[in-house]
Design brief:
Blueprint (H helix, E strand, L loop, with lengths): L1 H29 L5 H12 L1 H11 L7 H6 L12 H12 L7 E4 L5 E2 L3 E8 L4 E7 L3 H22 L8 H16 L1 H17 L5 E2 L12 E5 L3 E3 L3 H7 L3 H18 L3 E2 L7 E4 L4 E3 L5 E2 L3 H16 L2 H11 L1 E2 L5 H18 L8 H21 L2 E2 L2 H20 L16
Parallel strand pairs: 5-10
Antiparallel strand pairs: 1-3, 2-3, 3-4, 4-6, 7-9, 8-11, 9-10, 12-13
Helix pairs in contact: 1-2, 1-6, 2-3, 6-7, 10-15, 11-12, 12-13, 13-14, 14-15
Keywords: Kinase, Transferase
Organism: Marinobacter sp. MMG032
Protein name: AarF/ABC1/UbiB kinase family protein
């Protein structure tokens, strides 16, 4: 019966999607319309969870999508109205299979955050620990699967009708999106990511960084109960001074921890924006939200390592050579031509962020994306297509570059002996 129900719901969802796309198409044909990227973004937002996530994927994937679409989808915000607390309590109770008061002494009915896939509430366990509960919204997984299967089928049809599109591998992109989104829906995987990173910190004797502890007895595939961290964002310089005597040292801890994870952990945190890096009250750096992680294949890692080494010493020929080995191409790429273009971009970057300009989170995000898109665009202008993991990796480097401008403007990232970029 469940399968039949899912089938009926799936058919209804596809009908709903086709209806919205049809209305968008009619508006587009009438000619009274916004630019195509904006029209597509507005359509995605009206279609809900899957398409909002897809929009965010486009925003963080300049290796796959044109610049004007990547820029437009920066506005695809993953903020949704809170579900009533009664619905949240029901989901938690169903997942635990027992009364809530046997596990939690209290749960704050006001959500800390609400996104398309999950909602987060502060709580306290009966054993006294302060926690947060991440609760998956009802029906999300079924909607994601239905939408992504529909998109995959559409992509395959388009590739058949227009063989030139197969080089961009639209169906491959949809498969990648499906893999990352379904991983985000599986909180057991996120819990495992937290435990693996915790073990990595333990094995590397790193007592200056932390990740939230997972409470397995009240975590399932659809709810995740974690230790609650109290602290401030890594970009809140004034508040950091109340927790850490040396903000520069705190930043170095965060960077060294992340760099070490590239080679000594089975994945790297692939979303180190300011909301996911905290300075805790005891001065440690807290890494939170392990829904998005990146994994680099061993054969690609040597090229990535060489790329980092080349960036550190400003060797543009080395950067170009490594990019050619990381990328996929159908043509011969001239190292010296690519190196020349990278050198010109590097000179522009130096002029772009004067140290005296105050930090603005939105502007920093735009800068990160623009530089990233420019680097990728240069590679693509030479016939290179990069794996998404490389874009994720570059984006984290660029985030850290911005944090240096805020917390340690005098520090030379590539010359400072306290930084261990390559372990």
């Amino acid at each position: 019966m469940g399968t039949v129900t899912n089938g009926i719901k799936g058919a209804f969802r596809i009908g709903q999607t086709v209806s919205v796309l049809g209305r968008t198409g009619i508006n587009w044909l009438r000619g009274d319309r916004p630019p195509t990227p904006r029209l597509l973004r507005q359509t995605f937002e009206s279609l809900g969870a899957t398409y909002i996530k897809l929009g965010q994927f486009i925003a963080s994937s300049p290796t796959f999508f044109p610049k004007e679409y990547v820029e437009e989808f920066q506005y695809c915000l993953d903020k949704t109205p809170n579900l009533p607390f009664g619905v949240i309590k029901k989901i938690i109770r169903e997942e635990l299979g027992r009364p809530l008061d046997e596990v939690y002494a209290e749960i704050d009915p006001v959500a800390l955050a609400s996104a398309s896939i999950a909602q987060v509430h502060a709580a306290r366990l009966v054993t006294g620990e302060e926690v947060v509960i991440k609760v998956q919204k009802p029906g999300v997984e079924n909607i994601l699967l239905t939408d992504l299967n529909f998109l995959y089928l559409s992509a395959r049809i388009l590739e058949t009708l227009a063989p030139k599109l197969s080089w961009t591998s639209m169906s491959g992109i949809v498969e990648e999106i499906q893999r990352t989104m379904m991983e985000e829906c599986d909180f057991i995987k996120e819990a495992n990511n937290l435990k693996v990173f915790r073990d990595f910190l333990h094995d590397t004797h790193n007592e200056d960084a932390a990740v939230p502890r997972v409470f397995e007895h009240c975590s399932t595939r659809r709810i995740l109960t974690m230790e609650r961290f109290h602290g401030v964002s890594l970009t809140d310089l004034e508040s950091i001074r109340g927790y850490a005597r040396d903000p520069e040292r705190t930043l170095i801890t965060a960077m060294n921890t992340w760099f070490a994870s590239l080679t000594q952990c089975e994945f790297f945190h692939a979303d180190v924006h300011a909301g996911n890096l905290m300075v805790l009250k005891d001065g440690r750096v807290g890494f939170i939200d392990f829904g998005i992680v990146g994994r680099i294949k061993p054969d690609t890692w040597q090229a990535v390592s060489d790329f980092i080494s080349a960036v550190m010493v400003g060797n543009f020929e080395g950067m170009a050579d490594a990019m050619i080995r990381i990328g996929i191409t159908r043509q011969t790429v001239r190292v010296e031509d690519l190196a020349g273009d990278l050198r010109r971009l590097y000179q522009q970057m130096d002029k772009m962020v004067p140290d005296e300009v105050p930090y603005e989170a939105d502007q920093a995000e735009d800068d990160v994306n623009h530089i990233l898109m420019d680097m990728v665009k240069i590679g693509e202008s030479h016939g290179l297509h990069f794996p998404r993991e490389f874009a994720l990796l570059l984006k984290q480097f660029l985030y850290f570059d911005r944090y240096v401008h805020i917390l340690a403007p005098e520090m030379d990232v590539f010359m400072d002996e306290r930084l261990n970029m390559l372990h």
